[in-house]
Amino acid sequence: MPTQETETQQADDQLITTDIQHAESTRREQPDQTVLEARDLDVFYGEDQALRSVDIEIPEHKVTAIIGPSGCGKSTFLRCINRMNDMIDVCRVQGELTFRSKNVYDEDVDPVALRRKIGQVFQKPNPFPKSIRDNVTYGLEVQGKSATDDDVERALRGAALWDEVKDQLDSSGLDLSGGQQQRLCIARAIAPDPEVILMDEPTSGLDPVAASKIEDLIDELVEDYTVVIVTHNMQQAARISDKTAVFLTGGNLVEFDDTASVFEDPEDDRVEDYITGKFG
Ligand SMILES: Nc1ncnc2c1ncn2[C@@H]1O[C@H](COP(=O)(O)OP(=O)(O)OP(=O)(O)O)[C@@H](O)[C@H]1O
Ligand SMILES: [Mg+2]
Protein backbone atom coordinates (compact mmCIF):
# COMPACT_ATOMS: atom_id res chain seq x y z
CA MET A 1 0.00 0.00 0.00
CA PRO A 2 1.37 3.47 -0.79
CA THR A 3 2.21 5.52 2.26
CA GLN A 4 0.91 9.03 2.68
CA GLU A 5 4.41 10.23 1.89
CA THR A 6 4.65 8.41 -1.44
CA GLU A 7 1.18 9.60 -2.34
CA THR A 8 2.22 13.17 -1.63
CA GLN A 9 5.38 12.68 -3.65
CA GLN A 10 3.36 11.27 -6.54
CA ALA A 11 1.04 14.24 -6.38
CA ASP A 12 4.10 16.49 -6.47
CA ASP A 13 5.47 14.67 -9.47
CA GLN A 14 2.16 15.02 -11.27
CA LEU A 15 2.16 18.68 -10.43
CA ILE A 16 5.51 19.29 -12.06
CA THR A 17 4.84 18.12 -15.54
CA THR A 18 6.62 19.39 -17.28
CA ASP A 19 17.38 45.88 -9.86
CA ILE A 20 18.81 47.96 -8.75
CA GLN A 21 19.53 47.13 -5.16
CA HIS A 22 20.92 43.61 -5.42
CA ALA A 23 24.22 44.82 -6.74
CA GLU A 24 26.28 41.76 -5.98
CA SER A 25 23.74 39.29 -7.20
CA THR A 26 24.78 36.85 -9.88
CA ARG A 27 21.21 35.71 -10.41
CA ARG A 28 20.71 38.82 -12.52
CA GLU A 29 23.05 37.52 -15.12
CA GLN A 30 21.14 34.31 -15.63
CA PRO A 31 18.33 34.24 -18.18
CA ASP A 32 14.90 34.51 -16.60
CA GLN A 33 13.09 31.22 -16.24
CA THR A 34 9.36 31.62 -15.73
CA VAL A 35 8.07 29.72 -12.71
CA LEU A 36 4.53 31.11 -12.45
CA GLU A 37 2.40 32.45 -15.26
CA ALA A 38 -1.11 33.91 -15.39
CA ARG A 39 -2.95 34.14 -18.72
CA ASP A 40 -6.19 36.05 -18.98
CA LEU A 41 -6.87 35.42 -15.30
CA ASP A 42 -10.23 36.66 -13.99
CA VAL A 43 -11.34 36.28 -10.39
CA PHE A 44 -14.83 36.87 -9.09
CA TYR A 45 -16.34 36.96 -5.61
CA GLY A 46 -19.97 36.22 -6.42
CA GLU A 47 -20.94 38.90 -8.94
CA ASP A 48 -18.00 41.18 -8.14
CA GLN A 49 -14.88 40.93 -10.25
CA ALA A 50 -11.64 41.33 -8.28
CA LEU A 51 -9.08 40.60 -11.03
CA ARG A 52 -9.46 41.35 -14.75
CA SER A 53 -7.63 39.54 -17.48
CA VAL A 54 -4.30 39.43 -15.69
CA ASP A 55 -1.27 38.33 -17.74
CA ILE A 56 2.03 37.96 -15.93
CA GLU A 57 5.17 35.82 -16.02
CA ILE A 58 6.97 35.57 -12.71
CA PRO A 59 10.67 34.69 -12.98
CA GLU A 60 12.47 32.10 -10.89
CA HIS A 61 14.89 33.13 -8.14
CA LYS A 62 13.79 36.73 -8.24
CA VAL A 63 11.77 38.90 -5.90
CA THR A 64 8.55 40.08 -7.55
CA ALA A 65 6.74 42.87 -5.69
CA ILE A 66 3.00 43.36 -6.09
CA ILE A 67 1.90 46.90 -5.32
CA GLY A 68 -1.29 48.92 -5.74
CA PRO A 69 -4.03 50.65 -3.76
CA SER A 70 -6.18 48.89 -1.19
CA GLY A 71 -8.80 46.62 -2.74
CA CYS A 72 -7.09 46.31 -6.14
CA GLY A 73 -6.76 42.53 -5.78
CA LYS A 74 -3.18 41.98 -4.56
CA SER A 75 -4.10 39.44 -1.88
CA THR A 76 -6.61 37.83 -4.24
CA PHE A 77 -3.85 37.31 -6.80
CA LEU A 78 -1.50 35.84 -4.22
CA ARG A 79 -4.19 33.48 -2.95
CA CYS A 80 -4.90 32.29 -6.49
CA ILE A 81 -1.34 31.11 -6.91
CA ASN A 82 -1.49 28.35 -4.29
CA ARG A 83 -5.25 27.95 -4.38
CA MET A 84 -5.91 29.48 -0.97
CA ASN A 85 -8.97 30.99 -2.68
CA ASP A 86 -10.42 27.46 -2.69
CA MET A 87 -11.38 28.16 0.94
CA ILE A 88 -13.64 31.06 -0.11
CA ASP A 89 -16.95 29.62 -1.30
CA VAL A 90 -17.99 32.58 -3.46
CA CYS A 91 -14.63 32.86 -5.19
CA ARG A 92 -14.46 31.79 -8.84
CA VAL A 93 -11.33 31.73 -11.01
CA GLN A 94 -11.27 31.82 -14.83
CA GLY A 95 -8.35 31.72 -17.21
CA GLU A 96 -5.05 30.05 -16.61
CA LEU A 97 -2.55 30.11 -13.81
CA THR A 98 0.42 27.83 -14.31
CA PHE A 99 3.19 26.70 -12.00
CA ARG A 100 6.03 25.27 -14.07
CA SER A 101 3.68 25.06 -17.05
CA LYS A 102 1.00 23.05 -15.23
CA ASN A 103 -2.33 24.76 -14.65
CA VAL A 104 -2.80 24.74 -10.88
CA TYR A 105 -6.59 24.61 -11.41
CA ASP A 106 -6.44 21.33 -13.34
CA GLU A 107 -8.50 18.60 -11.74
CA ASP A 108 -5.49 16.39 -11.09
CA VAL A 109 -3.66 18.99 -9.01
CA ASP A 110 -3.70 18.28 -5.29
CA PRO A 111 -3.86 21.66 -3.49
CA VAL A 112 -1.96 20.26 -0.48
CA ALA A 113 0.92 19.16 -2.72
CA LEU A 114 0.75 22.52 -4.48
CA ARG A 115 1.09 24.38 -1.16
CA ARG A 116 4.12 22.28 -0.33
CA LYS A 117 5.75 23.74 -3.42
CA ILE A 118 4.29 27.22 -2.93
CA GLY A 119 4.40 28.29 0.71
CA GLN A 120 2.83 31.39 2.21
CA VAL A 121 3.57 33.97 4.90
CA PHE A 122 0.82 36.29 6.08
CA GLN A 123 0.64 39.91 7.17
CA LYS A 124 0.14 39.15 10.85
CA PRO A 125 2.67 36.70 12.25
CA ASN A 126 0.59 33.63 13.08
CA PRO A 127 2.71 31.05 14.91
CA PHE A 128 0.75 28.23 16.47
CA PRO A 129 0.45 28.14 20.26
CA LYS A 130 3.10 25.45 20.30
CA SER A 131 6.83 25.23 20.86
CA ILE A 132 9.25 26.82 18.41
CA ARG A 133 10.32 23.33 17.36
CA ASP A 134 6.73 22.17 16.80
CA ASN A 135 5.95 25.26 14.74
CA VAL A 136 8.75 24.32 12.36
CA THR A 137 8.06 20.59 12.26
CA TYR A 138 4.39 21.27 11.57
CA GLY A 139 5.32 22.39 8.07
CA LEU A 140 6.68 18.91 7.36
CA GLU A 141 4.29 16.82 9.41
CA VAL A 142 1.24 18.31 7.73
CA GLN A 143 2.71 16.89 4.55
CA GLY A 144 3.03 13.43 6.11
CA LYS A 145 6.79 13.67 6.64
CA SER A 146 8.62 13.22 9.91
CA ALA A 147 10.97 16.03 10.89
CA THR A 148 14.46 15.58 12.33
CA ASP A 149 16.44 18.01 14.51
CA ASP A 150 18.51 18.77 11.41
CA ASP A 151 15.36 19.79 9.53
CA VAL A 152 14.44 22.15 12.37
CA GLU A 153 17.90 23.69 12.45
CA ARG A 154 18.04 24.05 8.67
CA ALA A 155 14.68 25.84 8.52
CA LEU A 156 15.49 28.13 11.45
CA ARG A 157 18.88 28.96 9.97
CA GLY A 158 17.21 29.59 6.63
CA ALA A 159 14.90 32.06 8.36
CA ALA A 160 17.83 33.78 10.14
CA LEU A 161 16.37 32.81 13.53
CA TRP A 162 18.53 29.89 14.68
CA ASP A 163 21.09 31.88 16.68
CA GLU A 164 18.35 33.67 18.60
CA VAL A 165 16.30 30.59 19.53
CA LYS A 166 18.61 27.56 19.49
CA ASP A 167 18.59 27.32 23.31
CA GLN A 168 14.83 27.65 23.66
CA LEU A 169 13.38 25.36 21.03
CA ASP A 170 10.81 24.03 23.49
CA SER A 171 9.47 27.45 24.53
CA SER A 172 6.29 28.76 22.99
CA GLY A 173 6.51 30.44 19.59
CA LEU A 174 4.10 33.02 21.00
CA ASP A 175 6.74 34.25 23.49
CA LEU A 176 8.92 35.57 20.68
CA SER A 177 8.90 39.21 19.52
CA GLY A 178 6.75 40.14 16.51
CA GLY A 179 9.71 40.13 14.15
CA GLN A 180 10.95 36.80 15.51
CA GLN A 181 7.44 35.36 15.18
CA GLN A 182 7.36 36.40 11.53
CA ARG A 183 10.74 34.75 10.94
CA LEU A 184 9.39 31.64 12.70
CA CYS A 185 6.49 31.67 10.22
CA ILE A 186 9.04 31.92 7.41
CA ALA A 187 10.90 28.94 8.93
CA ARG A 188 7.60 27.01 8.97
CA ALA A 189 7.01 27.94 5.33
CA ILE A 190 10.47 26.87 4.16
CA ALA A 191 10.63 23.63 6.20
CA PRO A 192 8.97 21.55 3.42
CA ASP A 193 11.51 23.04 0.96
CA PRO A 194 9.09 24.85 -1.34
CA GLU A 195 10.03 26.49 -4.64
CA VAL A 196 8.02 29.66 -4.20
CA ILE A 197 7.24 31.73 -1.10
CA LEU A 198 4.28 34.10 -1.21
CA MET A 199 4.33 36.95 1.31
CA ASP A 200 1.36 39.24 1.90
CA GLU A 201 2.60 42.46 3.56
CA PRO A 202 4.93 40.48 5.84
CA THR A 203 6.49 43.52 7.51
CA SER A 204 3.54 45.89 7.81
CA GLY A 205 3.01 45.14 11.50
CA LEU A 206 6.68 45.26 12.44
CA ASP A 207 8.96 48.02 13.71
CA PRO A 208 11.58 49.29 11.23
CA VAL A 209 14.43 47.20 12.68
CA ALA A 210 12.41 43.96 12.59
CA ALA A 211 11.17 44.86 9.10
CA SER A 212 14.70 45.47 7.91
CA LYS A 213 15.76 42.02 9.16
CA ILE A 214 12.98 40.45 7.09
CA GLU A 215 14.07 42.48 4.05
CA ASP A 216 17.63 41.22 4.46
CA LEU A 217 16.28 37.71 4.85
CA ILE A 218 14.26 37.99 1.62
CA ASP A 219 17.46 38.92 -0.17
CA GLU A 220 18.98 35.64 1.07
CA LEU A 221 15.87 33.53 0.48
CA VAL A 222 15.79 34.40 -3.18
CA GLU A 223 19.01 32.48 -3.73
CA ASP A 224 17.03 29.29 -3.02
CA TYR A 225 13.43 30.27 -3.65
CA THR A 226 11.27 32.53 -5.78
CA VAL A 227 9.62 35.25 -3.69
CA VAL A 228 6.38 37.07 -4.52
CA ILE A 229 5.68 39.84 -2.01
CA VAL A 230 2.72 42.18 -1.64
CA THR A 231 3.68 45.47 -0.05
CA HIS A 232 2.17 48.90 0.53
CA ASN A 233 5.61 50.28 1.16
CA MET A 234 7.02 51.75 -2.07
CA GLN A 235 10.52 52.11 -0.65
CA GLN A 236 10.44 48.49 0.35
CA ALA A 237 9.35 47.38 -3.12
CA ALA A 238 12.10 49.52 -4.68
CA ARG A 239 14.70 48.21 -2.22
CA ILE A 240 14.08 44.51 -2.31
CA SER A 241 12.41 43.54 -5.57
CA ASP A 242 13.73 42.71 -9.04
CA LYS A 243 10.35 42.97 -10.75
CA THR A 244 7.35 45.07 -9.81
CA ALA A 245 3.73 44.50 -10.78
CA VAL A 246 1.32 47.38 -10.29
CA PHE A 247 -2.38 46.62 -9.93
CA LEU A 248 -4.89 49.44 -9.94
CA THR A 249 -8.47 49.70 -8.71
CA GLY A 250 -10.74 47.36 -10.61
CA GLY A 251 -8.23 44.51 -10.54
CA ASN A 252 -6.21 45.43 -13.63
CA LEU A 253 -2.50 44.74 -13.80
CA VAL A 254 -1.38 47.96 -15.48
CA GLU A 255 2.40 47.66 -15.38
CA PHE A 256 4.89 44.85 -14.89
CA ASP A 257 8.57 45.41 -15.48
CA ASP A 258 11.98 45.56 -13.89
CA THR A 259 11.64 47.42 -10.61
CA ALA A 260 14.04 50.15 -11.73
CA SER A 261 11.91 50.87 -14.83
CA VAL A 262 8.65 50.92 -12.89
CA PHE A 263 9.96 53.35 -10.30
CA GLU A 264 12.18 55.52 -12.48
CA ASP A 265 10.31 55.57 -15.77
CA PRO A 266 6.80 54.11 -15.54
CA GLU A 267 4.93 53.81 -18.82
CA ASP A 268 1.47 54.45 -17.42
CA ASP A 269 0.67 57.91 -15.99
CA ARG A 270 -1.59 56.34 -13.38
CA VAL A 271 1.35 54.27 -12.13
CA GLU A 272 3.47 57.39 -11.88
CA ASP A 273 0.70 59.08 -9.88
CA TYR A 274 0.41 56.05 -7.62
CA ILE A 275 4.07 55.62 -6.88
CA THR A 276 4.59 59.31 -6.31
CA GLY A 277 1.78 59.24 -3.79
CA LYS A 278 -0.82 61.24 -5.72
CA PHE A 279 -3.45 58.61 -4.90
CA GLY A 280 -3.93 55.29 -3.20
N1 LIG B 1 -13.48 36.79 0.87
C1 LIG B 1 -13.97 37.76 0.07
N2 LIG B 1 -15.28 37.78 -0.24
C2 LIG B 1 -15.78 38.74 -1.05
N3 LIG B 1 -15.04 39.74 -1.59
C3 LIG B 1 -13.73 39.76 -1.32
C4 LIG B 1 -13.13 38.78 -0.47
N4 LIG B 1 -11.80 39.06 -0.36
C5 LIG B 1 -11.60 40.17 -1.12
N5 LIG B 1 -12.76 40.59 -1.68
C6 LIG B 1 -12.91 41.76 -2.55
O1 LIG B 1 -12.03 41.64 -3.64
C7 LIG B 1 -11.41 42.89 -3.94
C8 LIG B 1 -9.90 42.72 -3.84
O2 LIG B 1 -9.56 42.44 -2.48
P1 LIG B 1 -8.10 42.09 -2.02
O3 LIG B 1 -8.17 41.73 -0.58
O4 LIG B 1 -7.51 41.11 -2.95
O5 LIG B 1 -7.35 43.50 -2.21
P2 LIG B 1 -5.92 43.99 -1.76
O6 LIG B 1 -5.32 44.66 -2.93
O7 LIG B 1 -5.18 42.88 -1.13
O8 LIG B 1 -6.26 45.11 -0.67
P3 LIG B 1 -5.44 45.54 0.65
O9 LIG B 1 -4.30 46.38 0.16
O10 LIG B 1 -6.42 46.37 1.42
O11 LIG B 1 -5.02 44.32 1.38
C9 LIG B 1 -11.98 43.90 -2.95
O12 LIG B 1 -13.03 44.57 -3.60
C10 LIG B 1 -12.49 43.05 -1.83
O13 LIG B 1 -13.60 43.65 -1.21
MG1 LIG C 1 -4.45 42.52 0.78
TrEMBL record:
GO terms for molecular function: ATP binding; ATP hydrolysis activity; phosphate transmembrane transporter activity. InterPro entries: AAA+_ATPase, ABC_transporter-like_ATP-bd, ABC_transporter-like_CS, P-loop_NTPase, PstB-like. GO terms for cellular component: membrane. Pfam families: ABC_tran (PF00005). Residues 36-275 form the ABC transporter domain. The keyword Membrane applies. SMART domains: AAA. GO terms for biological process: phosphate ion transmembrane transport. Keywords: ATP-binding, Cell membrane, Membrane, Nucleotide-binding, Transport. The keyword Membrane applies. NCBIfam families: 3a0107s01c2. This is Phosphate ABC transporter ATP-binding protein PstB. The gene is pstB.
